[in-house]
Amino acid sequence: MRKLLLTYFYLLFGAFLQGMSMSLFLFPHSIPSGGAAGLALLMNHWFELPLGFSLWLANAVFLLFALNYFGFTWTFRTITSVAATSTTISILTYQVPHMHIHIFLDMLAGSILFGIGVGILIRVGASSGGMVIPALMIASYKNWSPGKVMMGINLFIFLLTSLIIDYKIVIFAVICQFFSTSIIDYIYDFRFQKVSVLSPHWRRK
């Protein structure tokens, strides 16, 4: 029971960090933190849907794939992660004033928080949803680092977002991805001595 509670504590903490990075630092500049976030920004731009709800829609299809590939437990944890992230975004976007000092400082802060959040989610046997799901499928099959695979998949979404909203977005998004995926890979490879709950349970045997 204690291990299960710790798992969901870290899961909710990672999801909160991810949602905070999006709502306070990246989304105000229309910078997608990843492929699903890019799709959420596009739906917000085209249909004026709330960002939190748009993020849910962007994740729906990928969660169906996750259920078949990773199983119920992993998918349930990912759904919990997406719900916590979307709720965080919905609350912070409308309740917390955005005091931006400089776009590059916001990008740095957002990338660091996002990388830590997603890294924690992967370590506790979940994901942030979206493009992380196919990235983990490819990474587990090819034994590649999940961060680098995720960056490659997201580039297409970034290019589409830049064509629709602003070409500068792809530059900012790639910079953010470079920092965040490096942090994700560091947390993924880091060996924890005492917190045994933090292990990459998502990998298929």
TrEMBL record:
It is a multi-pass membrane protein. It comes from the Bacteria. GO terms for cellular component: plasma membrane. The chain crosses the membrane at residues 51-72, 79-97, 103-126, 147-165, 171-188. Keywords: Cell membrane, Membrane, Transmembrane, Transmembrane helix. InterPro entries: UPF0750_membrane, YitT. PANTHER family: UPF0750 MEMBRANE PROTEIN YITE (PTHR33545:SF9), UPF0750 MEMBRANE PROTEIN YITT-RELATED (PTHR33545). This is YitT family protein.
